[in-house]
Amino acid sequence: MDSEFQGKQNFIQSVFNHQAIGFDVDHCLIRYKIKALTKLCYKVICQTIIDKHNYSSSILDLTEAEYGFALNYLVIHIDKGIVLRIAENKEIIKCYRGFTELDVETEYGPTRMLSDDFDPISSIKQHPQYIVCATYFENVIPLIFAKLTQYKCEKLNTIQLDQSEYHAIFGQIIEGLKMNYQHFDQHQVFPINQYGRFFRQISENPQLYMFKQNQFRTTLENLKSQGKVLFIVTNSHVEFMNLTMTYSYGEDWMNIFDFIFVKGGKPEFFNNPNKQTFVLDMNQPLLKGQAVNQLMTNQKIYVEGNYTLIEQYLMQRFSSLGQILYIGDHIMNDCYFTQKYTNWDSIAIVEELFEQLKPDSQNRVEAEQNIISYRSYWGNYLESNVDNQTLKNYWFSIACKELKGVVRTLDCLQNKSLWN
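Structure for 5' nucleotidase family protein, as requested:
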């Protein structure tokens, strides 16, 4: 274990000393069966694209190996139709057009770098050329981009498309993604069973896509009994959150938490102290009721909001503001920006930490069964050998250097171990 990890381990030993502990929902409190989830996301988004844009149904067909293209924190260089991953110095480790590996220096020169204006941290949300795909809901975007690129190249008998074609492909993917994931607009929140294919599949077969979390529920109840304030900040809306939390933690899961923010809009939740907060009102089209500037004793769920209400609540309850911890799977939006804009601590959930487990350990065997096998395309997630140099994954490097902790799953927190 290197010195950075030893520091993380020391922090995790004392993690539950915080006055308040907050959690993201998806891929944090909710542990998904990632292999099954990735296949579902791929199929529902591709089927939507087929229906809208008359692609052949053959794009639904992927080999098990091709699913391994779906790795977290890949970068799509839209103008060139390339999917790539970067190391801690922003050097490109590998790049592909379709499923064909390209020579990095041929595409990007001897420096193996993207353009100078590409800052991966600020580009996590938007850049005209580069898109960072940072969660297990987004990891299929590069996979679909590669599949559609390869499909069109084969159809046109070419090895490269016009720049406009790559942008059209990316636009179709984002459209398909929104038609399955984003069940609300500026006017209305739609019932999830009436929206797209994704939510309906999760709702009808939750056991295929999620693990029960009985063990960690006990941990949460123990923390609650010790007087800890427990809260949720999620970018999901209330219906999907309730569906997943009910399956994983039981019908009475809300009793565990002091307050809950849905449609939190992270990272803005952590960097905009003026962002409005609304009480949840199921009778309103946007589910947004009265605007409030403090948490209320008779109200548990809020829509949107910002971090200052939590700090204000803690000051009123304890007469002083203690340490606050937030745990999530998005290294940037959940964790990095939390520590940058607040005085909170943060821990990132990185399931790929299984690479640090002993090859024959039971935990590693179980972890590898849950995660798509990505090594044939991308090598190790945590670090790569480039020109006889061992370099950390760019995003994992940020987590190690900037965050208070990195763990494989929430169960590792329970066992006070980095990766268990």
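The longest helix spans residues 34-53.
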